Amino acid sequence: MYALVEDNNITQIITNPKTMVIGDVRYPAKIFQLWSQSELNAIGIYEVITDSSNFKDEKWYINTNESYAFADNQVTRSWGTATPKAHADSLWTQEDSDDGDLPDDKEVGDVKVEGLKTTLIRTIKQQASGLLAPTDWYVVKASEVSDYSVPTNIATYRASVRTKSNEMETAITNASDTPALETLYTYTRQEDGSVTRPLGELPTLEI
Questions:
Q1: Strand-strand pairing, 67-71 and 195-196
Q2: For labelling alongside 127, which of 45, 46, 84, 157 has CA 20 to 30 A away?
Q3: Residue 157: what pLDDT?
């Protein structure tokens, strides 16, 4: 990515090499491959340097729009301070009702916008349900056939899925803020070479 700087102002961001008209001169797209940085700089074209120190994972944060600045013969692309996404639900309030903003199908105290905790817990429930589904037939058969019982390993597995799912949901519920939620999901390499996250994983069935 390049930028065209004229009179110390960025006038154009160039995402792909192209023919450029600068002043009264037309330059072919090949200059981006053939010219040195100093030669490009001499006609006002600068390679954009990205500073992503403020850019955060969009799963957890709302980033600002990117901005470009020219200083000390360098064009920098950067972002402002990111805002954490809400970790808790926001609710419809009496003020919303008084202002006429409360939808007809909602009441004061109902969820207005779901926070990260709600969506993350829903995902855990869906994942646990998906893991249990292939062995549901054992439970159905046991309820319908009097002399049949769920194999011990299947019963143990299903219980472990529910236990771990509940533990994960509790950890999410107890997270104090969005950074704490992000930490739960952040994988790190351990001394034994394994890569784990504080939230852990739902168990899988070993046949």
A1: unpaired
A2: 84
A3: 97
